[in-house]
Structures are given as C-alpha cells and as structure tokens.
From TrEMBL:
InterPro entries: Cupin_8, JmjC_dom
Top-level taxon of the source organism: Bacteria
Protein name (Swiss-Prot/TrEMBL): JmjC domain-containing protein
Pfam family, one: Cupin_8
Alphabetized SMART domains for the sequence: JmjC
Ranges for domain JmjC: 100-271
Lineage: Bacteria, Pseudomonadati, Pseudomonadota, Gammaproteobacteria, Cellvibrionales
Amino acid sequence: MVAMHIYDLDSDAIERISNPSINDLKTLFVNTRKPLIFPGLANREFSFIRSLNLDLFSKMTKRVPVMTPSKSGVNLFIKYDDMPMNEFVESVKSGKKLYIGAQKIHGERGIPTDINGLSGLADNIDIPRWINPECIASSNLWAGSGDNSTVLHFDPWDSLLVLGQGKKEVVVIPDVETPRCHPYSAYNFFALNEGRVLHSQVNPLNIQKKFQAEFSKIKAMRGSLESGDVIFIPAGFWHFVESQEVNVGINFFIHLADKSLFQQEPLRTFWIKDNITLKPVNWFWRIKSRFFRTIRKVFPKRIAS
Ligand SMILES: O=C(O)CCC(=O)C(=O)O
C-alpha cells in the first residue's frame, strides 16, 4: 500500500456563510450539527483578535506550556515545555517549530484563569454579547511558528475558532464516522494515562497501513481559513488542523445545549472515560507520585548520587 495523508480523503467543501445575522449566530450553538466557516467574521465580531500578536506576547513573562511536534510530526497535547511567553516569541522568530495549543485564557463562564499563565490576555478580549457566558467552558490560545499540525481529535464542546493571523487548513470528519477514526478504547489505561482521551490512533500525516482501508472510506469536509475567518466545529466531530505561517487564534469552547448527544459516539465513550475509567488511572498516578516524593524525602542522597 502507498503512503496516505488525511488530505487524500474524499471531501466536500465546508459551507461558508458570509455576514450572518446576530440571530443566526445565537442559534448556532443550539441546533447546528455541521461545521461552518464565517469568512471575515472576526473583523465584525472579534476585532480584538488583531491585538493578540507577537508584539503583545513579547511583553509577557509568565511561563506557558508549549509543544514541539511528536515523532509522527503532529502536536499531541501530551508533553509540554514551560517557557516564558517572551522566550516563545524569540524562538518562533528564530524559526523553531513550536505551538501553543488549547491553553486557557478564560475558564468556566468566561472567567479569566491563570492556570496556563495567560490570564493577562483576558484584558484584550471582548467576548461578544451573543455568546452566553453561562455556556462558556473556556477560551484558549492557539499560536505557533507555522507548519503546526494538531492531532486528529474531537472535543466534548462546540468550538468557535477565530483566526487572527496566519492560515489554517481544516479537515472535519462527522461524528457518525467515529469507528473509522479508531478512537482509543475507554479501557486503554496506557492511552488514558498519556492523556489521549479525545485522540484518534490514526496519524493524519502518514496513515498507518492497518487503518488505511477503513479510513479511506470516510467522507470528510475540508476548508481553508485566512486571517479574520472563524470556523464552527460541533462537539464530537473529528478534526485535524494544519496552521501555516506565524499564526495566532483563539477558540471558545461552548457547553452543549443538547446533552443527549452524550448518548451517541464518540461523546458516549468520552463520558465513560472522563467519569469512570480515567478515575482509577488518576488515582494510580497520584499514589505513584506521592510514593516517589516520599522516597526522595527519606533517601535524598542515595537518589541524588
Ligand atoms: O487550530 C488548531 O490547531 C486546532 C483547533 C481546535 O482543535 C479547535 O478549535 O477545537
């Protein structure tokens, strides 16, 4: 079999809607179950996005979790290097392939959080009034050097991704295609321990031979984003995103209006992982860390030598 890339999938163009009314946008999260691109919507509704740029980031000194691509070439949200934001800017300018992916600026109800060192950005962000703060799970920064690929995954919230700078190519795969995306089982404790709760096992840049036959039957949707564009991705829809040029975006994760979607895949398996099988993995990890911390306290020299 020949090498296969996710771009080789048969795909339709993601529908593009120009100049939607506020009412259209308000109903977006209630009854839309397909991806949509809103060209240039950021200029009207998210004009703050222009102020999120490398100049602003170079004035920030707090440490932020930063990713370098895994061996497969994609960013996996598993391992991070914490670095001051101004150092991130210098490294990006010197051509290092780095990505800040899904790092929180706001948490639940749109309240700023400093969990990832980025609460300072909240002062620059005016959340549009048509997004009900009660429904916000988080807002997150996505920023990189270019040539940044995000693992094929789904989210348990609807996502509204606003691109301020750079370009993005987005492949979206409907939730009904979940078996062909080969999610990690709810009982794969190794994958859960690594944080691969939402990930596909498929490497989108070089699809493994064992997955090719099934994966190639998928009917995907594909679209390109330029700076100022916004994309809506429904919860449970698989997506792969490749960012080009120095890129800066922010997304809002919005809680689902229709909770019954957790009764269907892949959100059903996500619920099982998050509420049942992840718990023993977390307990094991906490007990293991506590055990080694105690050992280090009791035998500090022997461990150090
Ligand atoms: O921009 C990216 O790299 C990924 C964005 C994403 O996964 C999302 O908005 O849910």
